[in-house]
Amino acid sequence: MAGLKTANPSPSLRHRFLPRTLFARSLLIIAVPVILLQAIATFVFFDRHWESMSNKLIFALTGEIQMVTGQLSMAGGQADIEQIVKEAESSLGLSIDLTDAALLADGAAHDPFRRFHWFSVGRKLQDELDHRLDVPFMIKPYDREKWFVVEVEYTKDKSARFIIHERRLVSSTTYIFLLWLIGSAIVLFSIAILFMRNQIRPILRLAVAAEKLGKGQEVPDFKPVGATEVRQAATAFLQMRDRLRRQMEQRTLMLAGVSHDLRTPLTRLKLQLAMAADTPETAQLRDDVEEMERMIEGYLTFARGDGDESAVMSDISSIVSRLASNTRRQGKEISLDCPEKIMWRVRPVAMERAIGNIVSNAAAYATKMDLTVRAEDGLLEIIVDDNGPGISAADREDVFKPFYRLEKSRNKKTGGVGLGLSITQDIVHSHGGEIELLDAPTGGLRVRIGLPA
After folding, report:
1. Residue 371 CA to chain centroid, in angstroms?
2. Bridge partner list, 369
3. Does the first or last residue of the chain, that is N or C, have fewer Cβ atoms within 10 Å of its Cβ?
4. Rounded CA separation 232/226 (Å)
5. What is the pLDDT at residue 249?
6. For residue 48, what pLDDT is reported?
7. Spacing of C-alpha 155 from chain mean position
8. Per-residue model confidence (pLDDT) at position 407
């Protein structure tokens, strides 16, 4: 996402093809062994059971055809032929039609077993008949589905048509085995998906709670649930949240005392200076007191932060429009490029202070500023460009440090106390965003803030 700096090292080949989510990786851990086990079982089944069964079925069928055609070729008359056919149908389950036509020479080219070629059943039947029969034959389709015909010429001018069902070549256990594999895989994956969803849900809730806490939002309804390890992590998270709250409360109490203790002597000094005569010395003292008061306010603002303010859906367009109007009233030139209304979940007072600090810094050193706001793909981007002197690349990391000033003097006319960008960065980070300094197209400095939804 533009505006957010994230470490994205090039992944290794192994990680590139792995799923990114824990849920998908957990399912992969279950799926891979199951698939491998079923693949091995299928290979063993078809290599051993299928081959063995199909060979036995083909051997038995071709033996029956060989025996019947042999008896037909040696029959003494029509009565013997009819008796042979009758016994074959009753004992062997073969349906036989006798014809007076001889087979064509190219009859063996017919092959109704194309759907069986991946099992090589059709080819094996033809090879076995070639081996057993010394007379012409051919295999051809029948007019009913799953039936086929083996026609054998048992004398020079007569042939027998054996009408056979495909189950004489294919064992029904094959289909049962395949259905068992598919059914068991579906049941296993369904149970695994339900189980993994229940296990992953507490981790997702912990991640969401941590993200909300990082953005300064409350997570009052979060409770440790799930497996023991997840409960331990959730308990540690709650303990960390409570420690942070206590730390913030203690800091607030300490700051309240510091504020009172520091402002009381400053007030006395201001009263004494107000009653003193106007001399160059008293004027200089008044400036020093004002500078001290301003510095104390800056220190307290930086230390206090905006922890008491809650994040709510706020109109960013209204905030930046108000800042742009205030800047124009100060006699500065600023252009605003912002949609009519952008609603975003922020702490409005803190966010106005952060953007205001950037605009104020730009106004102090530049004559023209461009304020751009856009929201797309779940990212709010706020950009301030100016035509000032900018900040060198070497100083862009240091300016976010508290009390760091590019202008080393403490003259209030040449800058503040060095807390503006520190406060801004702290506010942006508390919203889960990032701030960065770049070169502006106008030659000055560009400050870009990126806030996720």
Report:
1. 34
2. 334, 386
3. C
4. 10
5. 75
6. 67
7. 73
8. 61
- For 195-246, the three-class secondary structure string (H helix, E strand, C coil) is HHHHHHHHHHHHHHHHHHHHCCCCCCCCCCCCCHHHHHHHHHHHHHHHHHHH
CA distances to 261, 265, 267 from 290, rounded to whole Å, are 17, 13, 11
* Residue 174: predicted pLDDT: 65
The pLDDT, as a whole number, for residue 399 is 85
Distance separating alpha carbons of residues 212 and 272, to the nearest angstrom: 49
**Chain position carrying tokens 């039947």:** 125
Place of tokens 């979060």: 222
Q: 359 vs 114, 342, 373, 408, 443, CA distance in Å?
A: 78, 19, 13, 21, 17
Angle at 96 between CA 93 and CA 101, to 5 degrees: 165
Position 302 scores a pLDDT of 61
Nearest CA among 137, 158, 161, 132 for reference residue 149: 161
CA distance 106 to 83: 31
Give dist(CA 298, CA 303) in Å, integer.
9
Give counts: helices (H), strands (E), the chain. 11, 11
Question: Please, are residues 332 and 326 in contact by the beta-carbon 8 Å criterion?
Answer: no
Can you tell me the distance from the alpha carbon of 277 to that of 106, in angstroms, rounded to the nearest whole number?
A: 132
